[in-house]
Amino acid sequence: MLTVRKSQDRGHADHGWLNSFHSFSFAGYYDPAHMGFGNLRVINEDRIAPGTGFGTHGHRDMEIISYVLSGELAHKDSMGNIKGIPPGDVQRMSAGTGVQHSEFNHAAGQTTHFLQIWIEPNVRGISPSYEQKTFAEAEKRGALRLVASPDGAQGSVKIHADAALYAGLLDGAESATLALNPARKTYVHLVRGALSANGQGLSGGDALLMEKETTLSLTDGHDAEVLVFDLAA
């Protein structure tokens, strides 16, 4: 079963310093039909204006992934991590029993464009932890590169959740396929560009929700960057 969710159907909030699109209900955007998909709870596409950001705030019992598209995200947390997250890096923060952090764009003339992703954990009350890794463009070119998984396979960041995340870059004749477990759910989020997923044409910001499918086939990419989530049903 395939369901396309168009970019323009997402929730939207423009706070001036922050321009955000919400794939699922979040903050002031509430849609009972879109509360999450499987154990994927949040995908926020955020653009942070220069010299602004999220002040210190807290999280508990959530796996949080930051995927930066352009600019740089400055991260600081109560675990002592002070990091810059550039494009190509994947950051994972396990909130566990509780963590405080801030996220800022310190660049004078550049917007920070990134995805904030929340996945519900399969274990609660763990100690907070942090991980950040770089995935070269060549690893994602014409392929689906595993970037987050429960066991840190293939050098991916390790998440405490029954989920896996793949990232891919496709253009022209490049294609990628992924075998799926039909008992699980798959969520395809096109970050930018255009491509075809199992025959469904997608543009930047669109998503394809997949259930009871055995294969994902990505073709006809035009400067496409895509994230694919393998999720517990």
Automatic annotation (TrEMBL):
Residues 6-119 form the Pirin N-terminal domain. Gene3D superfamilies: Jelly Rolls. Residues 146-231 form the Quercetin 2,3-dioxygenase C-terminal cupin domain. It comes from the Bacteria. InterPro entries: Pirin, Pirin_N_dom, Quercetinase_C, RmlC-like_jellyroll, RmlC_Cupin_sf. Belongs to the pirin family. This is Pirin family protein. It comes from Acidovorax facilis.
